[in-house]
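Q: Could you write out the predicted structure for this multi-component system? I'm mainly interested in how the pieces pack against one another.
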Amino acid sequence: MADFGEIVDGTFALSQEQIDIRKYGLSDIKASGIPTVYHAGDVVNLPYASGEISTCEAMGLAWGAFSSGITPT
Amino acid sequence: MAKRSGSSFGTFGKPEQFIPKGVTPIRTEFSRGSIPDSIYSSNREAAWTRWRRGFELYCNTVATNNYSYPFDYYIPLPPGTVIPPGSNPPKIPGIFQGFPTTNKELGMHWAGVRVAGSLRFDNVRDQDGDPSPILSVTEDEDYWYVTLSGDWDSSHPLPAPLFIPPVGPIPKQYPINGEILEDRIITVGGTPITKDTIDPTTQKRYGYIQAVLVSTDEVNGILKLQKQGSVEATPDGVFRTPATRPPNVGRYLMTGTRYCCSCQDFTRRDYAYMTGLGQGNQKLFPRTKVAAIKPGRYEVMRLNGVVDNNAMTSAQVNRQMEVVSPSPDYNIPPTITPNSSTVPGTLRDNPGVFRDFGATYLRSTPLPSLEGATSEGMPSYEDYGTTRNPDGSYTITSLTDFWEPLLDELRYCKHIYAMKFAEKVFPPEPSDIPVDIGSITAWEQSLVEKTNKENEKASYALMTRGLSMMDVPPYNCQAPMMMPMSQKLFNVPSTFVRMDGFRMFDKNGKEYNPSQGGSPGI
């Protein structure tokens, strides 16, 4: 079971060499650390628990506020 | 050469004398001597080329992985809404992907991606607080009608954001219409399945489908999904399109990957150029051709009430975007007379930003229910429509412009094709290979070299010139070409697209907040 916010399905496959030395394409630039977070085609796990304001609910609140002429603080 | 004296305003050439040498009358009959269906052929070949160029861009992007700006966008909440302490903030994960180009003054097209799974329907509850999985599905030739489980009626319709009730003069809204939905959530709070996830009870892959939501029946809890462009992950672990079966009963829907692009091809808008590309630093006067001015909607960016079209802003600044729309009963005069006048706000003109607001091309799919149907057909051209009045004037009856079609209805550009290749939702060929292309091997080899060369050239131009005039996301997200894209991509009102909502990730995956002075690690 994936944790909140984790990518559960990604298609940006990096080779072990690329992950180890962060060497991209023909570039000689090397960096440490993990690769950047999201890539096109990723699927993220965002299961909001009961009582939390989910993305879906926040979007609804935003559109509802817009209809009433309310802007965010 | 005659030169006017007394002024340095200009030098006028002598008119050339027209000599009709070699010009002969047309003697051919209709359709003879020309290419039959040449417009259709051109359209088809352009569709194929757009698809194929997308694959080259995808390969190039994967190889270099540059100009990728991942982010979390924290949705601002209305006043008085409190996030419980310790809870996860509502956020939209995504990426701004830059595509260097030689065909744009600032050297870069920016495409936006909203990652799949951003919206989940396992939080949608009915009046009794019960969750709303798919209860049943019916279908006709072109659509699936998905009924969500729950107790829905006119007093207790589908909740926001599926349906926003009318408020005063503001009509009811359906913000989620146009979203790509996937039946990938098996249980409430469960992890979205992938195309390879195996059902432990059957030891077979679950599979799922992806389709666009086109309309919502809030009273009966019915979502109308479009078969056109649908994708199916089959139990064999492959994708096929159009999907051959409806969404699975008992599952919860979530949103699929959403794309938007700022390029001229996708928006069908032509940028104004302030300098002559390839001509040094030659300045151009911003103007719009009269022929390009016509009715339609356009955006005006304001900062503290003053129009502000700067490409760059500070991360502490929030502009306001207003979509200006002409009155639908605005009459176009049949003739221009000395007394004719234009009504401010009815014609689109934004000199220095856009040269032409254009029309739109929509995706189409002929007969998606038939066996062997293609996922995409020839795009359809849409523009504003008029009717002729008895007095000879014209009245606008419809506006099919940048703001009218749903996001996924617009024809894809090569940048979106590139990202759909990255998603491995392998976009099928929209048409056959052009017949007069010659050797496909030679053509593709030439294309690879050309793409590589162009990207190198474009990257150089971007580094030396573009980045001096334009910043990178999120600092450029309030540029006139970017803010409409952000609004469409996030699918929240433009007043809720604010710079303090962006959390960016640097190359090491470390989060930073630009609005508070954060910057990527070195």
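A: Regarding packing and overall arrangement: The two ends of chain A are 36 Å apart (CA to CA).
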